[in-house]
């Protein structure tokens, strides 16, 4: 029985190797070559060339466009190194700690909420470990100033949050929190015509 199974395995291995060799031999073909074989023609469109402008004018135009589009740009794949002192920030009654739960009324808003929630958690994991290491070595959590110094020395940046959210460091608990300015959120939502949650 073992001999029969081994023979079947060897035969199937040889067949698989043969198929792989055939596939490797054929390789990928150029779409233009395939079109020629089928008697079709592919028209190549000439690239539109933009007339060259002086570098100074380009830089000024890019800077102005960047300022105009800042509010419309996505936060996906962007980072920030801005972290506020949570104790001081929470003195403002419109600022609260966000629980990080996924919210939304439709699949798109839920996906956006999930991205922000998970990106903020994942991006702060490394710094949370550094805070725990500091606590183990010094029997206390780093102060806000020490925390900011640690971030600068290690060039740490977190995932960008929506404009009404921010990262905050709580020196008493040693946690990196996500804070939300409800007043700013209300203003931005009203301006965009989005109903509040």
Any key phrases for this structure?
single chain, 197 residues, alpha+beta, four-stranded mixed β-sheet, two-stranded antiparallel sheet, 7 helices, 6 strands, extended
Summarize the structure in words.
53% of the residues lie in helices and 12% in strands. The chain has 197 residues and is of the alpha+beta class. It has a domain of 114 residues. The strands form two sheets. It has a four-stranded mixed β-sheet with strand order 2-5-6-3. A two-stranded antiparallel sheet has the order 1-4. A hairpin with a 4-residue loop joins strand 5 and strand 6. The longest helix is centred in the middle third of the chain and has 32 residues.
Q: Strand portion, in percent?
A: 5-15%
**Strand/helix succession:** HHHEEHEHHEEEH
**Shape summary:** extended
Separate helix tally = 7
* Sheet with most strands: strand arrangement: 2-5-6-3
Distance between the termini: 67 Å
Helix proportion range: 40-55%
Describe the secondary structure blueprint for this structure.
Blueprint: H1 2-26, H2 31-37, H3 55-69, E1 79-80, E2 83-85, H4 86-89, E3 95-97, H5 107-138, H6 144-154, E4 158-159, E5 165-170, E6 175-181, H7 182-192
Parallel strand pairs: 2-5
Antiparallel strand pairs: 1-4, 3-6, 5-6
Quick structural gist:
Strand 5 (about 165-170) and strand 6 (about 175-180) form a beta hairpin.
